[in-house]
Automatic annotation (TrEMBL):
Species this protein is from: Elysia crispata (lettuce slug)
Annotated keywords: Glycoprotein, Glycosyltransferase, Membrane, Signal-anchor, Transferase, Transmembrane, Transmembrane helix
Lineage: superkingdom: Eukaryota
Biased composition (Acidic residues): 84-93
Biased composition (Basic and acidic residues): 94-123
Protein name: Beta-1,4-galactosyltransferase
Family (UniProt): Belongs to the glycosyltransferase 7 family.
Region: Disordered, residue numbers: 84-134, 427-446
EC class of the enzyme, as a word: transferase
BP GO annotations: carbohydrate metabolic process
Family annotation (Pfam families): Glyco_transf_7C, Glyco_transf_7N
Domain Galactosyltransferase N-terminal: 133-265
Localization per record: Membrane
Role of this protein: Catalyses the transfer of galactose onto proteins or lipids.
Amino acid sequence: MTGFRRYGCFGKYSSIVLAGLCFLILVLLSLHASQTPWQAAHRISGASSRLLARHKGGLGETVPRDLVTQPNSAEIFIDDTLDVEEEEEEAEGEEKQQQQKQQQQDKQHHQQQEHQKQQHEKQQQQPSNKTFCPKKSKQLVGTIQTYLDPVNISTVESKYPEVRKGGNFRPKECTARERLAVIIPCRNRTQHLHILLNNLLRLLIKQRLDFTIFVIDQDLPTTFNRGMLFNVGYLEALKRGSYDCFIFHDVDMIPTNDKCLYRCTHNPRHFLSGVSKWKYRLPYKSYFGGVVSFTRDQYRKINGDSNLYFGWGGEDDDLRARILHKGYSLLRYPQSIGRYDTISHQRDSGNKANPARFKLVKSAKARQDLEGLNTARYTVTSSVTRRLYTKIQVYINMTEIIQQTAPADDRSLMQVLLKDPKAFDEEVVHQERKSTSTTSTSAQIK
């Protein structure tokens, strides 16, 4: 009876309780309905922001981050097509921007000194009334005719009156972007030198370059050392001027395309993609001879060429190993641009094959910092300023180079070079016969 009364009492107020519960439920439902659109909009906005951020990052809206691949490692040789040139220009632009930022910071601390330096540079190298020469001259047409017949030096001189004594040319209407030194090792090849100048000068002038031609000759009877003559040319050129770019050029390589730009970039460059004597191909894929370029800093960083390659062969492969060991990539022009004609000739006297070349190439990286540009020893016997080039004659003491600058492991290997010519020739024949029965190394022509 008591429970019934309680229930009856509760029933008395049941309508009020139910009304309160209904009101509470309605309030909760209204709150939920008002929050859901805001939360949905927030989620959509967040997703859009993330997609937009990924789009700005270059990944696109549909590419998951974990599927983006890393760039492939650089190839040993890169075809220097227009895309590669654009990448080079971008890299050069970034470097220039960084240099400009650094210069601005320096100016804040040394305004007076920087101002004086800039005034001096403007007076000496960059007149204020000139603009920079274009990277690609409008005069360039592509394939050009080559002239391989013997020519008299007076005829060549008359064709290029704008070249100043010493082999220097500087465009008058614009300021060249860099100062170029062309280094040509040459001994007993005067006629070939005249043919090269007859073809090369017109290309350099059309490209509006500030250049100087250096011919480096080596006294007899020392066996010819092409790599060391490159070092000599580099060092002697810097004694005579502040050059930014160095082109090391064989005397018998004639360019056939004036769009083969003689310039330097952020990596060493190989100009040849094919040579006439090899049916406009290369002897092997990693070949790095004939015509190559380095900036001043690049050549110093790799410690130049090796001085140990007396006689023919091996120095190009040694140079390639030095470049790659210091972290550089190697650029090469495409087939259509890097075609060269060559002047046929017999192997020069005093330039027999080096019997130690195969083994020397194997030790290129190990001795890179021990010998090269930093151990070049020579004596300048004459320096003559001709109309179209500056000729520097040097004497190289082979005994001194081998015994005093070669690392101990290579010194004993090279003793055969110091023997009499008959022993030298016999060793050459022995090594060449041995090489034909074994697997060819990177120094051999494939």
